[in-house]
Amino acid sequence: MKRLLVLGSGAQGSTVAKRMDEEPNVAEIICADYDEKAVSDLAGQLKKGKALQIDARNVENIVKAAVGVDLIVNALPMAFGRIVIEAALKAGVNYQDFAAADDPSMDWVEGIRVMLDETSAKFRAIGKTAVISTGSAPGIICVAARDAVRELDSCETINMYVWEGVKAKRFLPFWWSPEVAYADMSDEAFPFVNGNIIASKPFELPVTRDVPGSDTPIRFVEHAHDETVLMGLNSEKYFKGVRNVYFKYGGYGVDFAENLYKMGLLSEEPIEVDGQNVIPRKVALKLTPPAPKYHDEIKEILNEGLIDDSGAMIVEAIGTIKGKKVMVETHVNSLSCVDAFEKSGLTGETYFTGQGGALFTKLFVNDKIYQSGLISSDMLEYDQIDYYLEEAAKLDITLDKKMIEL
Q1: Are residues 247 and 301 in the same domain?
Q2: Ranges for the Saccharopine dehydrogenase NADP binding domain (predicted)?
Q3: Whole-model pTM?
Q4: Which residue from 90, 96, 139, 383 has the least number of CB within 10 angstroms?
């Protein structure tokens, strides 16, 4: 029987806690957050829940909370990542997060490289496992990419496309954190090109293509995401020598942010306005409505009606089978925003990401994770992928996969 410490009582942490409350192999779920009311409300909804108010900025607070725990699930903002990893190592506990943690002391790509090497060795030394980047993208999309590549003898290119087509009648550019969105969209992206991780400016390398659910072609652009770096670093061992990996993002929020970026409104460099120094991105954030997260708030938006309730996640793995060039095209299906709310009280975005993470937690609690050290979500073995996808289908997350000769 497993005991879990879930840090963060937002949509992702709540989803993991609720899913694990249903697992026979889970004895207790310690729900921890700085917001005492939020964490008490969450724990009160669970049969196995226990509430804990915690300041996760302090490593020792987390270590103390993790006594007797089998797994720490980090569903806090990315800025807490390195703190929680340090706490997990100090407590001698398995670890899971939703995105690779930033290390402000080094380049982002180098930071991920260090995690897969040095941090992995530290977890291996204590006989524990850390799994990073386990949401939807990264997370589910990495599982889909691995599943596609297994069909090939060799792999040349992996293209990943994510389109968020959900649009409310009210002004609501993002269904996830605007703060994270603006940071990602103004950062350099790092595609893997000709065997090397390179830097590209935001909104570069545009591609226009048809997607299911849209009457018109969608424009996708480069976007700062873990997947290209992870798969690039893991190209030989897990992706059959892939030479090119791209992550492209499109949708209403992307188009909106691109205009702000071109105006300089996503910059963190101060500018003078009428004798006052202001930071443009802070102005943009102040005027951008937050993503809806409370039940009644989401319900109100949906009752107003949506202009569009579409989206797509597509993986293309291009390579060879018996000397012939082919493409394995995978469409990842999940619930629409309306259907996700009816099923879970969550938006489509938070349902998809939260369930994706919960499926990785399910691997842990059912002893399907047998690696030691630190692995990313694109490093599952094929038996683990099969289990993951089988359980995902029970949550209405499925793959449609087809082979196309080129």
Answers
A1: yes
A2: 5-130
A3: 0.94
A4: 383
